[in-house]
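Below is the record:
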Amino acid sequence: MLVYEPDDTVAHRLDPRSKLAVQIGFAIAALAHTSRRPLLALTALTLVILWSAGVRPFRAIYAYRYALPFLVFAPLVAGLTLGEPWFDVTDASQSAAASYRVFLVIVVSAAYVRSTPVRASRAAIQRTVPGKPGQVVGMGVALVFRFLPLLRDDVRTIRDASAARLGTERGLLERTTHLGTGTLERAFRRADRLSLALQARCFAWNPTLPPLAFSGLDVPAFGLALLLVGTATL
Protein backbone atom coordinates (compact mmCIF):
# COMPACT_ATOMS: atom_id res chain seq x y z
CA MET A 1 0.00 0.00 0.00
CA LEU A 2 1.34 3.40 -0.97
CA VAL A 3 1.97 6.02 1.70
CA TYR A 4 3.65 9.41 1.72
CA GLU A 5 7.40 9.25 1.14
CA PRO A 6 9.61 12.37 1.39
CA ASP A 7 11.30 13.11 -1.92
CA ASP A 8 12.26 15.96 -4.23
CA THR A 9 10.13 15.11 -7.25
CA VAL A 10 8.03 17.63 -9.18
CA ALA A 11 4.84 16.45 -7.47
CA HIS A 12 6.40 16.80 -4.02
CA ARG A 13 7.14 20.48 -4.72
CA LEU A 14 3.57 21.27 -5.76
CA ASP A 15 0.98 22.76 -3.45
CA PRO A 16 -1.55 20.09 -2.40
CA ARG A 17 -4.41 22.27 -3.66
CA SER A 18 -3.05 22.23 -7.20
CA LYS A 19 -2.58 18.47 -6.99
CA LEU A 20 -6.18 18.07 -5.85
CA ALA A 21 -7.28 20.22 -8.79
CA VAL A 22 -5.39 17.92 -11.19
CA GLN A 23 -6.95 14.86 -9.55
CA ILE A 24 -10.46 16.27 -9.91
CA GLY A 25 -9.86 17.43 -13.47
CA PHE A 26 -8.43 14.07 -14.47
CA ALA A 27 -11.40 12.21 -12.95
CA ILE A 28 -13.87 14.45 -14.78
CA ALA A 29 -12.07 14.00 -18.09
CA ALA A 30 -11.69 10.24 -17.65
CA LEU A 31 -15.37 9.74 -16.88
CA ALA A 32 -16.49 12.02 -19.71
CA HIS A 33 -14.47 10.52 -22.58
CA THR A 34 -15.33 7.11 -23.97
CA SER A 35 -13.60 6.97 -27.36
CA ARG A 36 -10.21 5.39 -28.01
CA ARG A 37 -8.05 8.45 -28.71
CA PRO A 38 -8.92 10.36 -25.52
CA LEU A 39 -8.32 7.20 -23.48
CA LEU A 40 -4.90 6.78 -25.10
CA ALA A 41 -4.09 10.41 -24.30
CA LEU A 42 -5.24 9.95 -20.69
CA THR A 43 -3.13 6.80 -20.43
CA ALA A 44 -0.05 8.75 -21.54
CA LEU A 45 -0.92 11.52 -19.08
CA THR A 46 -1.24 8.92 -16.31
CA LEU A 47 2.32 7.75 -16.95
CA VAL A 48 3.55 11.36 -16.87
CA ILE A 49 1.77 12.05 -13.57
CA LEU A 50 3.20 8.89 -12.01
CA TRP A 51 6.67 9.86 -13.22
CA SER A 52 6.28 13.33 -11.70
CA ALA A 53 5.75 11.71 -8.27
CA GLY A 54 8.41 9.02 -8.66
CA VAL A 55 5.88 6.17 -8.70
CA ARG A 56 6.52 3.20 -10.94
CA PRO A 57 3.40 2.08 -12.85
CA PHE A 58 3.65 -1.52 -11.66
CA ARG A 59 4.00 -0.36 -8.07
CA ALA A 60 0.84 1.72 -8.37
CA ILE A 61 -1.04 -1.20 -9.91
CA TYR A 62 0.17 -3.55 -7.18
CA ALA A 63 -0.87 -1.10 -4.47
CA TYR A 64 -4.45 -1.15 -5.73
CA ARG A 65 -4.50 -4.78 -6.78
CA TYR A 66 -7.55 -5.54 -4.63
CA ALA A 67 -9.71 -3.39 -6.91
CA LEU A 68 -8.53 -5.12 -10.10
CA PRO A 69 -10.75 -8.24 -9.83
CA PHE A 70 -13.88 -6.06 -9.71
CA LEU A 71 -12.72 -4.04 -12.72
CA VAL A 72 -11.83 -7.20 -14.67
CA PHE A 73 -14.98 -9.18 -13.93
CA ALA A 74 -17.38 -6.27 -14.43
CA PRO A 75 -17.21 -6.48 -18.27
CA LEU A 76 -17.70 -10.25 -18.14
CA VAL A 77 -20.80 -9.89 -15.99
CA ALA A 78 -22.14 -7.05 -18.14
CA GLY A 79 -21.79 -9.13 -21.29
CA LEU A 80 -23.72 -12.12 -20.00
CA THR A 81 -27.29 -12.54 -21.26
CA LEU A 82 -30.10 -14.91 -20.26
CA GLY A 83 -30.62 -16.09 -23.83
CA GLU A 84 -29.02 -15.99 -27.25
CA PRO A 85 -26.27 -14.99 -27.92
CA TRP A 86 -25.45 -15.59 -24.18
CA PHE A 87 -22.70 -12.98 -24.32
CA ASP A 88 -23.15 -9.45 -25.69
CA VAL A 89 -19.80 -8.09 -26.89
CA THR A 90 -21.15 -4.55 -27.17
CA ASP A 91 -22.24 -4.38 -23.53
CA ALA A 92 -19.00 -6.02 -22.44
CA SER A 93 -16.87 -3.54 -24.39
CA GLN A 94 -18.74 -0.56 -22.94
CA SER A 95 -18.27 -1.92 -19.43
CA ALA A 96 -14.58 -2.61 -20.16
CA ALA A 97 -14.08 1.00 -21.24
CA ALA A 98 -15.76 2.21 -18.05
CA SER A 99 -13.60 -0.10 -15.93
CA TYR A 100 -10.47 1.16 -17.66
CA ARG A 101 -11.41 4.78 -16.99
CA VAL A 102 -11.93 4.01 -13.31
CA PHE A 103 -8.60 2.16 -13.30
CA LEU A 104 -6.81 5.25 -14.63
CA VAL A 105 -8.36 7.44 -11.94
CA ILE A 106 -7.29 5.01 -9.22
CA VAL A 107 -3.72 4.75 -10.54
CA VAL A 108 -3.35 8.53 -10.82
CA SER A 109 -4.32 8.88 -7.15
CA ALA A 110 -1.14 6.96 -6.27
CA ALA A 111 0.92 9.99 -7.30
CA TYR A 112 -1.01 12.20 -4.89
CA VAL A 113 -0.74 9.74 -2.00
CA ARG A 114 3.03 9.33 -2.34
CA SER A 115 3.78 13.04 -2.75
CA THR A 116 1.46 14.64 -0.17
CA PRO A 117 1.74 14.49 3.64
CA VAL A 118 -1.47 13.80 5.53
CA ARG A 119 -1.35 17.14 7.36
CA ALA A 120 -0.92 18.98 4.06
CA SER A 121 -3.97 17.23 2.62
CA ARG A 122 -6.01 18.22 5.64
CA ALA A 123 -4.78 21.81 5.42
CA ALA A 124 -5.65 21.97 1.70
CA ILE A 125 -9.19 20.74 2.30
CA GLN A 126 -9.89 22.95 5.31
CA ARG A 127 -8.62 26.06 3.51
CA THR A 128 -10.64 25.25 0.40
CA VAL A 129 -13.93 24.25 2.06
CA PRO A 130 -14.90 26.98 4.56
CA GLY A 131 -16.36 26.50 8.00
CA LYS A 132 -17.13 23.39 10.02
CA PRO A 133 -17.82 21.20 6.91
CA GLY A 134 -14.24 21.69 5.74
CA GLN A 135 -12.92 20.84 9.19
CA VAL A 136 -15.00 17.66 9.33
CA VAL A 137 -13.93 16.54 5.84
CA GLY A 138 -10.29 17.43 6.51
CA MET A 139 -10.24 15.46 9.75
CA GLY A 140 -11.94 12.52 8.06
CA VAL A 141 -9.42 12.45 5.22
CA ALA A 142 -6.54 12.64 7.68
CA LEU A 143 -7.89 9.71 9.70
CA VAL A 144 -8.46 7.60 6.59
CA PHE A 145 -4.92 8.13 5.33
CA ARG A 146 -3.42 7.41 8.74
CA PHE A 147 -5.45 4.34 9.68
CA LEU A 148 -5.76 2.44 6.41
CA PRO A 149 -2.11 1.26 6.62
CA LEU A 150 -2.67 0.24 10.25
CA LEU A 151 -5.78 -1.77 9.38
CA ARG A 152 -3.92 -3.42 6.53
CA ASP A 153 -1.14 -4.44 8.94
CA ASP A 154 -3.76 -5.79 11.36
CA VAL A 155 -5.26 -7.98 8.64
CA ARG A 156 -1.82 -9.28 7.72
CA THR A 157 -0.96 -10.01 11.38
CA ILE A 158 -4.20 -11.92 11.98
CA ARG A 159 -3.77 -13.89 8.76
CA ASP A 160 -0.15 -14.82 9.56
CA ALA A 161 -1.02 -15.81 13.12
CA SER A 162 -3.86 -17.98 11.89
CA ALA A 163 -1.60 -19.65 9.32
CA ALA A 164 0.99 -20.38 12.02
CA ARG A 165 -1.73 -22.21 13.97
CA LEU A 166 -2.75 -24.30 10.93
CA GLY A 167 -5.64 -21.97 10.21
CA THR A 168 -5.20 -22.71 6.51
CA GLU A 169 -6.59 -26.20 7.20
CA ARG A 170 -9.98 -24.74 8.09
CA GLY A 171 -12.81 -24.23 5.65
CA LEU A 172 -13.12 -21.04 3.59
CA LEU A 173 -16.16 -19.77 5.52
CA GLU A 174 -14.48 -20.35 8.88
CA ARG A 175 -11.26 -18.63 7.77
CA THR A 176 -13.20 -15.66 6.39
CA THR A 177 -15.30 -15.34 9.55
CA HIS A 178 -12.22 -15.51 11.78
CA LEU A 179 -10.36 -12.89 9.73
CA GLY A 180 -13.35 -10.56 9.53
CA THR A 181 -14.18 -10.81 13.22
CA GLY A 182 -10.58 -10.27 14.27
CA THR A 183 -10.18 -7.29 11.96
CA LEU A 184 -13.36 -5.61 13.22
CA GLU A 185 -12.34 -6.20 16.83
CA ARG A 186 -8.97 -4.55 16.25
CA ALA A 187 -10.57 -1.69 14.32
CA PHE A 188 -12.96 -0.93 17.21
CA ARG A 189 -10.07 -1.10 19.68
CA ARG A 190 -8.11 1.40 17.61
CA ALA A 191 -11.18 3.64 17.41
CA ASP A 192 -11.55 3.59 21.20
CA ARG A 193 -7.86 4.41 21.70
CA LEU A 194 -8.13 7.21 19.13
CA SER A 195 -11.12 8.72 20.95
CA LEU A 196 -9.24 8.61 24.27
CA ALA A 197 -6.12 10.12 22.68
CA LEU A 198 -8.12 12.98 21.15
CA GLN A 199 -9.72 13.76 24.51
CA ALA A 200 -6.34 13.64 26.28
CA ARG A 201 -4.92 16.08 23.76
CA CYS A 202 -7.90 18.45 23.98
CA PHE A 203 -8.90 17.95 20.36
CA ALA A 204 -9.91 21.23 18.74
CA TRP A 205 -11.53 22.11 15.44
CA ASN A 206 -8.92 24.75 14.67
CA PRO A 207 -5.52 23.01 14.94
CA THR A 208 -2.28 24.60 13.80
CA LEU A 209 -1.89 23.36 10.24
CA PRO A 210 1.22 23.58 8.07
CA PRO A 211 1.51 26.71 5.92
CA LEU A 212 0.66 26.36 2.23
CA ALA A 213 1.96 28.56 -0.58
CA PHE A 214 1.66 28.44 -4.34
CA SER A 215 4.77 28.56 -6.52
CA GLY A 216 5.51 28.83 -10.20
CA LEU A 217 5.18 25.06 -10.56
CA ASP A 218 1.53 25.26 -9.54
CA VAL A 219 0.58 27.41 -12.54
CA PRO A 220 1.04 24.58 -15.10
CA ALA A 221 -0.74 22.20 -12.72
CA PHE A 222 -3.80 24.43 -12.49
CA GLY A 223 -3.60 24.93 -16.26
CA LEU A 224 -3.64 21.17 -16.77
CA ALA A 225 -6.63 20.83 -14.44
CA LEU A 226 -8.57 23.50 -16.35
CA LEU A 227 -7.63 21.88 -19.66
CA LEU A 228 -8.90 18.49 -18.50
CA VAL A 229 -12.19 19.98 -17.31
CA GLY A 230 -12.48 21.92 -20.58
CA THR A 231 -12.02 18.81 -22.72
CA ALA A 232 -14.76 17.09 -20.71
CA THR A 233 -17.26 19.89 -21.29
CA LEU A 234 -16.62 20.29 -25.03
